[in-house]
Design goal:
431 residues, alpha/beta, Lyase, Ornithine Decarboxylase, Chain A, domain 1, TIM Barrel, 2 domains, 8-stranded parallel beta barrel, 18 strands, binds pyridoxal-5'-phosphate
């Protein structure tokens, strides 16, 4: 990456976007940006962190940012793709991923979805005993090249965000390993079905400490070792470790990094690195979150009950989680003048409101920022993952354009359109 600090890069991008009309106070009041250099650096950090790249397939969890040009770029950077339904599968195929570089994980795969994935040779992780039975039925009449695994729930407990914790005792995902009889029954499934060769765990996501993730992966690996111990070496060929590395939303540092993740796994589950298993990873948030931001104009300002309020064009339609669960998903916000230059000035507690017609449509409450004025810009930081892919269609507000940006050493910004803004015409739908 070029020598600019993250905040400087954002400012360069914002200023260039204003100059080129990608942000415009009347025609483009809201737009999102992906730092493509940053994405490449994050992918490189992931690849560097794993000791033997040959034995690892890194896939990107499409739900974190499902824009086809983003997926295409990730493919060219050497990533595979993890998908969780027919829409994401279609996006991954459109982005050019080879079927053997795609992993299908979903707790609700239909028979036709399973059949198609197995026909194409896409890796499949079954989520339940019933799904394994379905796969077995399909394979009585079909030969497949797909790697087939089973997702286990290592039941290691809850992180700081319950809704994001996939490995609690009662989580809906995978086969609960500690429930009475399940481990035996799964062992029997491995004995019965030679095509079942992978074990999958995804312990996360945001809010789960590394130790909890490592403990979960450790339990999945111990189960794989047990299968191999009872049924013969290499019966389980590989472990899919899932994703779930949390992201720091407090400042521009990337912590914990992939190197800390690998160091923690090495200490807790050394067997992962002794060459006995092929590995797959499925990171989403940790690759993209810090490489995107969303910018919106301030349309009006007012005070209510003595508190300054900036009415902006960014609200629940682009940041639903932040608006509905502000304590769980707070976002950093930076203030900029109409040219995109960072505003300086004494911090004044302000509400940063969105355009939606409900009172709770606030991106931040009493946030200390230089006092905003109409025509200013606010940037919502760290929105590269799970924001562009989670629109909320309230008030029929159109989805904004998403632009990719690269910054050269001399500060020149190049843009590439990743998603056009939804047009008002697109919202007029009739049967
Ligand atoms: C969401 C998800 C991921 C990605 O999680 P992150 O926290 O974004 O890394 C990986 N695997 C599965 C099965 C998922 O559901």
């Amino acid at each position: 990456m070029t020598g600019f600090q993250a905040a400087e890069r954002r400012e360069l991008v914002l200023r260039a976007a204003v100059r080129r009309g990608l942000l415009h106070p009347e025609d483009a009041v809201l737009a999102a940006f992906v730092d493509l250099d940053g994405v490449a650096a994050s992918v490189a950090a992931l690849h560097r962190a794993f000791p033997d790249p040959a034995a690892v397939t890194h896939t990107f969890a499409a739900k974190a940012n499902c824009l086809v040009p983003v997926l295409e770029r990730l493919r060219r950077l050497g990533m595979g793709c993890e998908v969780a339904g027919p829409g994401e599968l279609a996006q991954a195929l459109a982005a050019g991923f080879a079927p053997e570089r795609i992993v299908l994980d979903s707790p609700a795969k239909t028979r036709p979805e399973l059949r198609r994935a197995l026909e194409l040779g896409i890796a499949v992780n079954a989520d339940s005993f019933q799904e394994l039975d379905r796969i077995a039925a399909i394979l009585t009449t079909l030969r497949t090249r797909s790697r087939i695994g089973v997702r286990v729930n290592p039941q290691v407990g809850v992180g700081s965000i319950a809704a994001m914790s996939t490995a609690t005792a009662t989580a809906k995902f995978g086969i609960a390993l500690d429930d009475e009889g399940n481990a035996e029954r799964l062992l029997h499934a491995f004995r019965q079905w030679p095509w079942l060769t992978w074990v999958h765990a995804h312990v996360g996501s945001q809010g789960c400490p590394l130790e909890l993730i490592a403990e979960g992966i450790g339990k999945a690996a111990a189960f794989a070792d047990r299968v191999n111990g009872e049924l013969g070496r290499h019966r389980v060929e590989g472990l899919d470790l899932g994703g779930g590395l949390p992201v720091n939303f407090d400042d521009d540092r990337t912590s914990p990094g992939f190197d800390a993740y690998v160091a923690c796994l090495r200490a807790r589950v050394p067997a992962l690195f002794d060459g006995g298993y092929r590995l797959v990873t499925e990171f989403g948030r940790a690759l993209l979150a810090k490489n995107g931001f969303t910018a919106a104009y301030v349309e009006y300002t007012k005070t209510a009950g003595g508190r300054p309020i900036a009415i902006t064009h960014a609200g629940a339609q682009v940041a639903a989680r932040t608006v509905f669960l502000p304590d769980t998903w707070p976002l950093r916000i930076s203030a900029h003048d109409p040219t995109g230059t960072a505003r300086t000035g004494p911090p004044v507690p302000q509400d940063i409101a969105g355009p939606c017609c409900f009172a709770g449509d606030l991106i931040a409450r009493a946030r200390p920022l230089p006092l905003l004025a109409p025509g200013d810009l606010v940037a919502l930081l760290d929105t590269g993952a799970y924001f562009f892919s989670t629109p909320y269609h309230y008030n029929s507000l159109p989805e904004p354009a998403v632009h990719g940006a690269t910054v050269t050493a001399d500060g020149t910004v190049r843009f590439e359109l990743l998603r056009p803004a939804q047009r008002i015409e697109d919202l007029i739908v009739r049967p």
